[in-house]
Specification:
The chain is an alpha/beta fold. It has one domain: Rossmann fold (3-Layer(aba) Sandwich). Helix content is 28%, strand content 28%. The chain has six helices and seven strands; from the N terminus they run ααβαβαββαβαββ. The protein has helices at residues 13-20, 40-49, 68-75, 88-100, 138-149, 163-171, and strands at residues 58-62, 80-85, 106-109, 121-126, 150-159, 176-190, 200-212. A seven-stranded mixed β-sheet has the order 3-2-1-4-5-7-6, sandwiched between helices. Helix 2 (40-49) crosses helix 3. The longest helix has 13 residues, at 88-100. The radius of gyration is 16 Å and the shape is globular.
């Protein structure tokens, strides 16, 4: 990690945003994988809300992409971070990002939908696919896999329009103790896909915390 970047559990969101700003996005975003980049601003807000479940914790980042949330977790003092990602090109950029910060992370190339929870961490963080178009239901699959994998909590972002369904579904999971809406935020969706008509679209999203029965 460069000399200007220190692990700080009490870091201010604006400072964390500045640290995360240089992180490279996807070289070519995939429509089928719903690869929408998490901005440094959104990631800093997300991770500072979750900091008590990050600092001195073991963390998994499901669908880690190019490493935005993973890097934030390390800055906030996670003891261990492991990323899970299906896309080889995204993993390549992630490794470049970590080299830029002089950091190393374990990255497992896998399909989250096929993941078997043979091991676990204390906290799972993720910005999963929203489950639109041909990926209907994948947001719930990511959540169910995360609940299987986490010992203590899951932090995730989902479209506000799906709030009632997600809460109802997760409360029916026998491993879930509680589902909490921690914040309402705006997800900036840039014009990265051919079917996008606007240069920038904002989607309302919920930051959700799921507490696991221990």
């Amino acid at each position: 990690m460069d000399q200007g970047t220190k692990m700080e559990s009490n870091i201010h969101p604006k400072k964390l945003q500045m640290i995360l700003q240089p992180i490279k996005p996807f070289e070519k975003a995939s429509t089928s994988l719903e690869q929408y980049p998490t901005t440094a601003h959104l990631a800093s807000q997300f991770m500072c809300f979750a900091r008590d479940d990050i600092t001195n914790k073991t963390v998994a980042d499901f669908g880690c992409g190019t490493g935005m949330l993973s890097l934030a977790a390390l800055v906030l003092g996670a003891t261990y971070v492991c990323g899970f990602e299906i896309d080889t090109s995204a993993i390549k950029v992630l490794k470049e990002n970590f080299d830029m910060f002089d950091l190393k992370e374990e990255v497992i190339k896998c399909d989250i939908t096929q993941l078997k929870a043979t091991e676990s961490v204390q906290t799972v963080i993720m910005n999963p696919p929203f489950g639109t178009k041909q990926n209907a239901g994948i947001d719930i699959i990511f959540l169910e896999k995360a609940v299987q994998f986490a010992k203590e909590s899951v932090w995730s972002m989902h479209k506000t329009s799906t709030r009632k369904y997600i809460i109802k579904t997760m409360k029916n999971n026998p491993r879930v103790k509680e589902v909490k809406i921690m914040a309402e935020m705006k997800f900036d969706l840039p014009q990265t896909m051919k079917f996008h008509k606007k240069k920038l679209k904002q989607i309302l999203v919920d930051l959700i915390k799921i507490e696991i029965i221990q």
